Amino acid sequence: MNLKRRSTDSIQLRAEAQTRFSHSTSSALTSTDEAALRHELLVYQIELEMQNDELQKAHTKMEEARDRYVDLYEFAPVGYLTISRQGLISEINLTGSTLLGIERKKLVKRRFAQFIAPEDRERWHRMFLGIMAEEEAEIQSFEFVMVRFNGSSFYALIDCQRKDAIGEQPTLRVTLADIHKLKESEAELRIAAVAFEAQEGMMVTDAHNTILRVNEAFIKITGYAPEEVIGKNPQILGSGLQDSAFYTAMWEQLGQQGIWSGEIWNKRKNGEIYPESLSITTVKNRHGDITNYVASFADITLSKSAANEIQHLAFNDPLTNLPNRRFLMDRLEHELASSTRTGHKGALLFLDLDNFKVLNDTMGHNIGDLLLKLVAERLITCVRDCDTVARLGGDEFVILLEGLGEHLLEAASQADAVASKILMTLSQPYLLEGHEHNSSASIGVTLIDENKLHIEELLKQADIAMYQAKQSGRSSIRFFDQQMQENISARVKLEEELRRALINKDLVLHYQFQTHLGQVTGAEALVRWQHPQQGIVYPVEFIALAEETGLILPLGAWVLEAACAQLKAWKLSNLTRDLLLSINVSARQFFQPDFVAQVACTLQRYDVNPNLIKFELTEGVLIKSIEETIATMTTLKAMGIKFSLDDFGTGYSSLQYLKRLPLDQLKIDKSFVHDITIDHRDRAVVRTIIGMAESLGLEVIAEGVETEGQKLCLLNIGCSNFQGYLFGKPMQISEFETMLKS
Ligand code: C2E
Ligand code: MG
Ligand code: MG
Asked: Which residues contact 509 (CB under 8 A, 6 or more apart)?
C-alpha cells in the first residue's frame, strides 16, 4: 500500500517537472532558472531510480513468497484438491497426485469418485451432494478406502469444505491424507487389547516390578481384584514353594535372555496353591533399558492332572494297575545308575505263574484276569515301598528290588528271601468267583550291580533263570548266575541247618589261653558247630550268615549262657576260679534293646562274678552308633564287665572316639602279628598301637602269636599279653583243663 502510494507520487512528480521544463523552454529562461531546473530534474531522477530499486526488491520478495507458497502447497504432507460441482478434479497438488499414483495433468478433469473404492463410493456421493447443497457448511471429515491408479488401495482421511466465489459455481476443497499406518497400528492395538484379554492371565509390571495392569483372566485365576494388586509386587502371589535360588536363576535368565518360561506354584487370594505355566518377557526402550515385564500364565491344575492321568495310562498296566514294561525300564535304568553310584546291589525277579494257561483255557479269560489282579495285589504286599512290581503282560511279572546289600552274596540272600516270601504268599489259595483255586509261580533272579550295564540283558538273564526254575519243577527259585545259584543254595541249606543246630544244641565252645608273662590269665571262648555229617564247622563259615539272618541272636545268647555255665563250673577249682573269660559279642547282639538285661539275667542265673567276664567287640560294632555304644558299655561296665577291642588296627578307629569308649583292652589283630618279625611296617603299626594304648591307659594283648620270635618281638616293643597257637590252640574244655593242670 505504502509502496503503491510512493510510486504514484513519483509519477506525479515527474509529470510536474516536465510541465515546468516545457514552460521554461517556451518562455525565455534565465540561466539561474535553468540550473535550478536541472538540479531539480536530477533529484527527481535519483529519486525515481531509488524507487525503481525498491520496486525490484519488492518484486523479488513477492516471487520468493510465491515460490514458498507453491512449495508448501505442492509438497504439503497432505494432498490438496479442488473438485468442481460436477465432481471433477480441477486442481490438485503434487502430494495429491502422488497419493493417487498418477501424473497431475492426467488427473485434471477426472472424476474424483473414480479413486474411491467401490464399496465406499455410494457414501462419497451422498456426502458430496450433502456438502454441495449446503452453504457455509463446516469442514467435514470422512475415512474412505481409496484406490490408486495402479489398483492398490490405502486408507485415506478426507477433509472437505465447500468454497463459494462470487459469480462462480461452488467448488469443494479437499485435503487427502494417507492414514494407512495409523489404521495398521490401530488394528495392532485392537489385537493387543483382545490378546491382553485372552484366556491367559496377564500382568504388566514396571521395571521395578510393580504391577501396572492385569487382565480379566488374571482376576479369574488369582481371585484378586485389580485394585488389590495394582501398585503391589507380584510376590503377593508367591506360594513359598520355590526357594530363593529358583527366583535368582529366573531373574538371571530374564536379565540375560529377556525371557523366562517354566512351571511355578503360586497362591490364589483364597490361599489355594496351584500350578501355573508362566512366561515372562522383558520390554525394553530404544536405549535397551528394561521398562516393563509382561507375564502371561495359565492355570495348569487341570492339565497337570490330565498329564498325570496320561502318565498313569502310559506307565501302568490297565488290568492290574501295576507299572508296565515302560515304567519298569525307566526304574531299571535308574537302579543301574544308583547301584553304580552307591555300591548297593539290586535284584531283578522274573515271575511267571505256573499253569496259568490251563486256568485261562478251562475257566475263561475273566477268571484268568481275576487271578492276575489278585496276584498283583499279593505281590505288592511282599516288597518294600522302594521296590517295583511290574506286569510285563500275560502272567509275567517282574519285581525290581533296590538298595540291597553291598556284597553280592548278601544281596543274593536278600533277593532269595523276598522270592521265597513271594512264592509262599502266592501259593495261598485264591477264591475266584466262588471257586477255590491253587496257584504257584516260578521265579528267576538276577542281581544288578555296576558291572551289568544293559537293562535288556538283565531282563533276559532273569527270564532265562525263570525258565530254569520252571524246568526244575514248579514253584521254585533260580538264580541266573550258576555260581550264585550254588552259593545261594548252599546258604539256604546252611541256614536251615544252623537253625536246626541251635534247636538241637549242636554247638560247643572251645577255649584258648590268654597269657601274661608265661602265666595263664584267662581264655577266649570260641564257638564251634558240631555238624552231624561234616564234623566241626568253624565260625568263619557261619557267623556272617548268622548275623545276616538274625540267627546270631539265639546263637549269642547260647554262647553267653554256655560261657557263664563254664565260669560257674570253674568256681569249684582253685586253678580256674580266677580265670577271666573273653566272650565275642557281635554288633546285632550288642544293639538289641534288651542286651544289658539279658546279660544281667544270665549272670545272675549262673551266679557269675561279672569281673571275670570280658566282652570282645569289633570296631565295626562301635562305630555304628557311638552314643548308644557308650551308653550300653557304661552300664555293663558299671556291673563289672570288662571290654576288649578285638581285631584292633583293621578298622577305622580314631583316637577321637577311642578316648570316649570305656575300654579296658586293645587286642592287636593277628594280621599284624603274623609278619611282625620280618615286616618293619607291621612292627611300626604294633608299636603305635601299644603307644596309643599306653596313653589311653589301656592294656594290650596280641592275638595269633604262633612263634617264639613273634612273642619276643612283641615283648620288646612292650606287649606282654598273648594269645595264639604258641600257647595253645582253641580246645575243648576237657583238653583245656588238662593243659592248664600241666
Ligand atoms: P576272633 O575273635 O578274632 O578270634 C580269634 C580267631 O583267631 C579264632 O578263630 C582263633 O581260632 C584264631 N586263632 C587263635 N590263635 C591263632 C593263631 O595263633 N594263629 C591263627 N592263624 N589263628 C589263631 P575262630 O575260632 O575261627 O574264630 C573266628 C572269628 O569268629 C573270631 O575271631 C570271632 O570274631 C568269631 N567268633 C568266634 N566265636 C564267636 C562267638 O561265640 N560269638 C561271636 N559273635 N563271634 C565269634
Ligand atoms: Mg575275639
Ligand atoms: Mg580277633
From this structure: 525, 526, 527, 528, 559, 562, 563, 566, 733
Shared domain for 562 and 648, answered yes or no, is: yes
Say if CB 379 and CB 422 are below 8 A apart: yes
Distance 575 CA to ligand 2 centre (A): 23
For ligand 1, atom 38, the nearest C-alpha belongs to: 526
One domain for residues 290 and 381: no
Q: Cβ(562) to ligand 1 under 6 A? A: no
- How many residues can be counted in the chain? 742
**Tens digits of per-residue pLDDT, 160-171?**
999 988 888 899
Is residue 121 domain-shared with residue 97, that is, in the same domain? yes
Other Cβ atoms less than 10 A from the Cβ of 65: the count is 10
Whole-angstrom distance, CA of residue 635 vs CA of residue 277: 60
Nearest to 520 by CA among 561, 560, 578: 578
Do 405 and 440 fall into the same domain? yes
Domain final residue, candidates 129, 156, 178: 178
Domains contained in the chain, number: 5
Task: Confirm whether pTM is higher than 0.85.
Answer: no
Q: Which residue carries 538276577 as its cell?
A: 446
Which contacts of 298-306 are long-range, i.e. CB under 8 A and separated by 24 or more positions?
A: 298/199, 298/200, 298/201, 299/201, 299/221, 299/274, 299/275, 300/263, 300/275, 300/276, 301/274, 301/275, 304/275
Summarised one tens digit per residue, pLDDT across range 93-102 is: 999 999 999 9
Out of 536, 584, 619, mutate this one to test ligand 1's pocket (max ligand atoms within 8 Å of CB): namely: 584
Judge whether 304 and 275 are in contact, CB under 8 Å.
yes
| 488 located within any domain | no
pLDDT bin (cut points 50, 70, 90) of residue 29 is low
Label the pairing between strands 153-163 and 171-178: antiparallel
* Dist. CA 584–CA 30, nearest whole Å: 171
Task: Name the residue with the closest Cα to ligand 1, atom 35.
Answer: 539
In a shared domain, residues 95 and 67 = no
Take atom 11 of ligand 1 and give the residue whose Cα is closest.
730
Which atom of ligand 1 sits closest to the CA of residue 618?
34
Fill in the amino acid letter for 249. Answer: A
Number of Cβ within 10 Å of residue 446's Cβ equals 27
Q: Whole-angstrom Cα distance, residue 355 to residue 507? A: 44
H-helix segments, 197-243: 216-222, 226-229
Residues 41-80: tens digit of each pLDDT: 999 999 999 999 999 999 999 999 999 998 888 888 899 9
Choose among 693, 598, 580: nearest CA to 636.
598
| CATH assignment of the domain containing 380 | 3.30.70.270
- How many CA atoms lie less than 13 Å away from 385 in the CB half-sphere? 0
Q: Indicate which ligand has the atom closest to the C-alpha of 648.
A: 3
Indicate whether 320 belongs to any domain.
no
What is the distance in A from the centroid of ligand 1 to the CA of 345?
A: 29
Give the 3-state secondary structure percentages of the chain, helix then strand then coil, rounded to 5.
50, 25, 25
Identify which of 255, 259, 304, 299 has the alpha carbon closest to the alpha carbon of residue 279. Answer: 259
Flag whether 489 is in a domain.
no
Identify the three-state secondary structure at position 239: coil
Query: Does ligand 1 have an atom closer than 6 angstroms to the CB of 703?
Result: yes
Domain residue limits at 62: 3-73
